[in-house]
Design brief:
This protein has 212 residues and is mostly helical. The chain folds into two domains: 108 residues, DNA polymerase, domain 1; 94 residues, no CATH class. Helices cover 54% and strands 8% of the residues. It has eleven helices and four strands; from the N terminus they run ααααααααααββββα. Strands 1-2 form a two-stranded antiparallel ribbon. Strands 3-4 form a two-stranded antiparallel sheet. A hairpin with a 2-residue loop joins strand 1 and strand 2. Helix 2 packs antiparallel against helix 3 and helix 8 packs antiparallel against helix 9. The chain is elongated. The two termini are 45 Å apart.
Amino acid sequence: MGYAALREDPTIDRWYRNVARGSAVTADVYLRRLGNVCRADDKRPADLIGMKSEDRRDFLTDLVSSMESKGLSGGYIESTLKALRSWLSFNNVPWEHRIKVRGTQMTPTLTKERVPTQDELRRIFLAASSRERVAAALMAHAGLRPETLGNYRGTDGLRLSDLPDVVMKGKTVTFRKLPAIVVVRPELSKSGRQYLSFIGGEAADFLKAYLE
């Protein structure tokens, strides 16, 4: 059962749209988690609603044990339970049992994160396409988030109008001054407030090369 097919069920679609009002990313993640669980156990989302309390308890605890045996992280398992809890709550099914998960305080994808060295950043620039090089430079030098460059749905992102120091004449790009201002509009800001950042000569050269 594909994720798009799940939304053909009107109740699932209403649940999905309700979650998406808070976060489109969360809605997509929850839909995938619900779909994965149902596909793995050959069940429909409606089956989870119709279970007796004890059967649901056994199903959830067995689910956690199965995911742990596969080596899945505590964070991933907890995310799956949150998706199921959201689906059940939307259908007025109480979350009656405390399902424990090991290792939920650790996020393996983040524990080893670090800022790249200058040499590593140089290698990233050399390996990237002109478009990727601009994105990497804006994140590295201006401190922008990926979601500022382009939002989750791809409907908005950083625009030339957000770079007031960029001057385009025909096929030539110049800068009024350096460092050049980058305006992060409220809709692209995590805090919902506009703020300014700057790019220096290297990032400006990458941007010029890409635009030209």
